[in-house]
Specification:
Chain lengths: 320, 433
C-alpha cells in the first residue's frame, strides 16, 4: 500500500489486514504507556484545508502514539489564504522534511492528485476530500462493527470480515464522503448496504451503486438491520431546497425516539453509528445518541487505532 | 509565387495536380509548370482549408495563455486557414475597437484569417446588448456573436439578440448552459460523478436551453448556432428542430467525439472542460449526429491555459482544452476510420459549412479553378503520438497527450501561400497592403 486514498482501492485482504493491525494498536491504547516507537524520527504532516478538529486530533494522536513528529498545517492563516497553490504548499512541506502527508481538502480528488503527480512523492492519507471519500472513517466504522459483533459472539475479530451484515446508511448521501467510503468498504467486507435518504440528497447515478436505495427509514427499520449509520445533515441544505426545513427532515429521516423504539422492538440489537459531530434533535435524537447501542464514542476511540494502523502500514514498510 | 501540388486526392477522390498562382487555383488536372515549386502529394488528401467556428485566442488580456500569433500558428499547423476568435478576452470583444484590434493582429500575423466573434452582451454580462451593428460594420466584419463561456440565459435578451442580428446578417452562437442547474458544476452528472462526489453538470442544463432557443429562433425567424453540443438529448432536440425547418446549426468539439467522463476518474484537470466530457452513449450519439447531418460542423473550442491553471487540484483548475493541432486527426479517428464519414464529408463539416455559418467569403470554397487557394494537404496514413510540448500553441493542456492518432497535416496554403510545409510551420503570408 503506497497511499490510502479510497476504500474502493482496497482488496478484502488489505482491508482486513488494516483492521487486524488496528486491533493490535487498540490494544496498546488500553495500556498505561500508550506509546509505540514504530515511527520514531518520522514526520507526519496534517495538511488541513478544511476545518476539522476531530479528524485532525485523531490523526495527531495516532501519529504521536507511534512516536512520529507531527506538524499541523491548516489553511486558515496560512499562505493558502494568500493564494498559494496546493503544489507549492505540498512542496514546501516536502522541503521541511515531511515523510507522509495526511490531507483534508474541500475538493474531491485533491489527495489523489497529490498522489498521482510528481509534486512530492510521499505517502498520502486521504483524511476527507470534498464529497468523495473519507477512507479512515469507513475503516473505523468497519472496525467498530467487526469488534462489537465479535464481542457479542465471544470470538476474536481478527481475520474476519462483515459477511452477511445488514447496514443502513441514512441521511445526506449526496454530500457525504463517509457514505461513499463506507459503501465500497462494507461491500468489500461482505456486508449489504441500504442507503436511506430523501431523493434530493441521493446523487443522480446512485442507482448503479452496489446497494439498495430507499426513501423510507421506517420501511428499512421494519425489514430489520444490524447497524444504522446516521449522517450529519447540515441545516443550510434547506436553503438550497434539498428539504423544506429541519423539522420535516427529522420527521422522515431522523433517528428519533419513536424509531429508536421500533429498532429495539425488532430485537436486532441494532448498532447506532454516527461519524460526528452530531446534530442532536435533527438526524439523531439524544436518546438514540446516548443509547447503549450507540457506538459514537467507541468510534472515536477506534478512529485513533485505525489511523495508527494506516500510518504504520504506509510508513513502516510493506506489510501487504 | 507559383506552387504545383502533384497527385493529391481532392476530397479523397481522384488524384490530380493543382497549380496555384497568386493566391488562386489556376489549373487542375495534369499540369506541368517548370517554374512552380512542386509539392509531391501522392497518397495525400487535399481539403479546403479548415475553418474553425470556435477558437479562444486569449489576446487581448491573457497573452500568457495564447496570443493571436501563437494561436493562429497552431491553427495553420492544424490545417486551418480561418478561425473565429471568441469574444471572452480582456477587455471583452463587445465593441468595434476590440474586434478591429483582434482582426488587425490576425492580419499582421498572417497565418490564417482571424475573424473575431462579437459579444452578444456588454462585458458578457447578460444584461445589455453590445454594439452588434458597429461590430458588423467594422473592418472586422463580425457576423458571429456569442457570449461563449457564459450562456445568454435570460430568455427575453436571447430573443432580442436573435431578432436584432437579423439586420446585420449575423448569427447568435449560444453556449447552452442553464446557470442555476450548473452552479458549482465540475463534471457530467451521472454514474461517475456519483462515485467521485463531484457536483454534477446535468445534460438537461444544456438541453433545456437548446430547446428554448430553437423555439425562440423559430418564433422570430432567426438563425441560431449551437456551440459545442455535448449530449445525446441535445442531438435529438436539434434533429427535431431541423425537421421542423428551424434555421439552426450545431457544432461539436473533437474531444466530445472521443473522450468520456471516465477520464475524470484520474482527477487530472486536463480533462476539465465546459461543457464537460459526457458518457459513451453521448459520444456515440454525437458521432451519429454528425453522420446524419444533424450536427453541421466541428468547432475546436481550442482553449489554451498556462500550466499553473492545470497543474493543481481539479476544483481549482480552469476549464478548457487545446484542440487546433489535433482536431483533424480526431475527426479522422472518430468519423472517417469508423466509416461514418467520407473525406468529402470532412470537407463539409470542417470547411464548407463553418465558412457559411460565419459568412466568410474567401473560405470554405470548392476546390476549383479561380477559387482562392485556401487548401490543406493531409496524410491519412500517418500516425503520430501527441506531445503538447511540440505544439505551436502556448497551451500544454491537450487531453490527447500521449495518444497515437492517425492523420497528419503536411501542408497548409493560406491564400496561395504555404504556412505549413512538410508538416512544419513555414512562413506567414505578408498581406498585400
Amino acid at each position: 500500500m503506497k497511499h490510502l486514498l479510497s476504500t474502493a482501492d482496497l482488496s478484502r485482504e488489505e482491508a482486513i489486514a488494516i483492521l487486524d493491525i488496528a486491533e493490535e494498536m487498540r490494544e496498546t491504547g488500553t495500556r498505561q504507556v500508550k506509546k509505540l516507537p514504530a515511527l520514531r524520527g518520522r514526520t507526519v504532516v496534517n495538511l488541513f484545508f478544511e476545518d476539522s478538529t476531530r479528524t485532525r486530533i485523531s490523526f495527531e494522536a495516532a501519529a504521536k502514539r507511534l512516536s512520529a513528529d507531527v506538524i499541523n498545517f491548516s489553511a486558515k492563516g496560512s499562505s493558502v489564504s494568500k493564494g498559494e497553490s496546493l503544489k507549492d504548499t505540498a512542496q514546501t512541506l516536502l522541503a521541511i522534511g515531511a515523510d507522509a502527508v495526511v490531507i483534508r481538502h474541500p475538493d474531491s480528488g485533491a489527495p489523489a492528485r497529490l498522489a498521482a503527480t510528481d509534486w512530492i512523492g510521499l505517502p498520502i492519507v486521504n483524511a476527507g476530500d470534498g464529497t468523495h471519500e473519507h477512507p479512515t472513517q469507513a475503516l473505523l466504522d468497519a472496525f467498530t462493527l467487526r469488534r462489537q459483533l465479535a464481542l457479542r459472539e465471544g470470538v476474536s475479530p481478527v481475520g474476519r470480515g462483515l459477511d452477511g451484515l445488514k447496514v443502513a446508511i441514512v441521511g445526506d448521501i449526496l454530500h457525504s464522503r463517509v457514505a461513499r467510503s463506507n459503501l465500497w468498504l462494507l461491500n468489500t467486507l461482505g456486508a449489504s448496504v441500504t442507503m436511506v435518504a430523501p431523493p434530493t440528497l441521493l446523487p443522480v447515478g446512485a442507482s448503479a451503486w452496489p446497494c439498495k436505495i430507499s426513501y423510507s427509514l421506517d420501511a428499512v427499520i421494519e425489514t430489520g438491520v444490524d447497524a444504522v449509520m446516521m449522517l450529519r445533515v447540515q441545516g443550510e441544505r434547506m436553503r438550497a431546497a434539498f428539504f423544506p426545513n429541519p423539522r420535516e427532515y427529522s420527521r422522515y429521516w431522523g433517528l428519533d425516539d419513536t424509531r429508536l423504539k421500533a429498532l429495539e422492538a425488532k430485537g436486532h440489537d441494532t448498532l447506532i453509528l454516527h461519524p460526528g459531530p452530531m446534530n442532536r434533535g435533527l438526524e439523531i435524537s439524544s436518546a438514540a445518541a446516548d443509547s447503549p447501542h450507540s457506538m459514537v464514542l467507541e468510534q472515536v476511540t477506534n478512529g485513533v487505532a485505525v489511523r495508527m494502523a494506516s500510518l504504520y502500514m504506509l510508513l513502516s514498510g510493506d506489510l501487504i | 509565387m507559383k506552387y504545383l501540388i502533384r497527385q493529391a486526392a481532392v476530397l479523397g477522390g481522384q488524384a490530380t495536380d493543382v497549380l496555384i498562382i497568386d493566391g488562386k487555383i489556376a489549373q487542375l488536372g495534369e499540369v506541368t509548370d517548370a517554374e512552380a515549386t512542386v509539392i509531391e502529394a501522392a497518397g495525400l488528401v487535399l481539403l479546403p482549408g479548415l475553418v474553425d467556428p470556435h477558437t479562444h485566442l486569449r489576446e487581448p488580456g491573457r497573452e500568457d495563455a495564447e496570443t493571436v500569433e501563437t494561436g493562429s500558428q497552431a491553427a495553420a499547423r492544424g490545417g486551418y486557414t480561418a478561425v473565429h476568435a471568441m469574444a471572452n478576452s480582456t477587455p471583452v470583444a463587445d465593441n468595434a475597437g476590440v474586434v478591429e484590434q483582434v482582426y488587425e493582429l490576425g492580419r499582421k500575423a498572417g497565418w490564417v484569417d482571424v475573424r473575431p466573434v462579437g459579444a452578444v452582451t456588454v462585458g458578457l454580462g447578460g444584461q445589455q446588448l453590445s454594439e452588434i451593428g458597429a461590430m458588423a460594420d467594422s473592418r472586422a466584419k463580425v457576423r458571429m456573436f456569442s457570449d461563449d463561456g457564459i450562456c445568454v440565459s435570460d430568455p427575453l435578451l436571447m430573443r432580442r439578440a436573435l431578432e436584432y442580428v437579423k439586420a446585420f446578417d449575423g448569427v447568435i452562437a449560444q453556449h447552452a448552459q442553464e446557470p442555476r442547474l450548473t452552479e458549482g458544476a465540475q463534471m457530467n452528472e451521472g454514474e461517475v460523478s456519483a462515485v467521485l462526489g463531484m457536483t454534477g453538470w446535468p445534460a438537461v442544463a444544456e438541453e433545456s436551453i437548446i430547446a428554448r432557443d430553437v423555439l425562440l429562433a423559430e418564433h422570430v425567424g432567426a438563425r441560431l448556432h449551437v456551440c459545442h453540443v455535448s449530449t445525446a438529448g441535445s442531438v435529438e432536440i436539434i434533429r427535431w428542430a431541423k425537421a421542423r425547418g428551424i434555421a439552426v446549426t450545431a457544432e461539436v468539439t473533437p474531444h466530445h467525439l472521443l473522450l468520456t467522463d471516465e477520464k475524470v476518474k484520474t482527477f487530472d484537470p486536463v480533462f476539465k472542460v465546459n461543457p464537460p466530457l459526457r458518457r459513451e452513449e453521448d459520444v456515440l450519439a454525437l458521432r451519429a449526429g454528425v453522420a446524419d447531418g444533424t450536427i453541421d460542423v466541428i468547432g475546436t473550442d481550442h482553449a489554451p491555459h498556462p500550466s499553473e491553471a492545470k497543474d493543481c487540484e481539479w476544483g481549482a483548475a480552469a476549464m478548457g482544452m487545446t484542440g487546433l493541432e489535433t482536431a483533424l486527426s480526431i475527426v479522422q479517428h472518430t468519423l472517417v476510420e469508423t466509416g461514418l464519414l467520407s473525406w468529402a464529408d470532412v470537407a463539409r463539416i470542417t470547411s464548407f459549412t463553418p465558412a457559411k455559418i460565419g459568412s466568410l467569403e474567401d473560405q470554405g470554397r470548392p476546390i476549383a479553378v479561380g477559387e482562392p487557394a485556401n487548401l490543406t494537404l493531409v496524410d491519412p496514413a500517418a500516425r503520430w503520438i501527441v506531445d503538447p510540448f511540440t505544439m505551436a500553441t502556448k497551451g500544454r493542456n491537450s487531453p490527447f497527450a500521449g495518444m497515437e492518432l492517425p492523420g497528419a497535416v503536411r501542408a497548409t496554403f493560406f491564400h496561395g501561400h504555404p504556412t505549413v510545409l512538410d508538416g512544419a510551420l513555414a512562413t506567414p503570408r505578408v498581406a498585400n497592403d
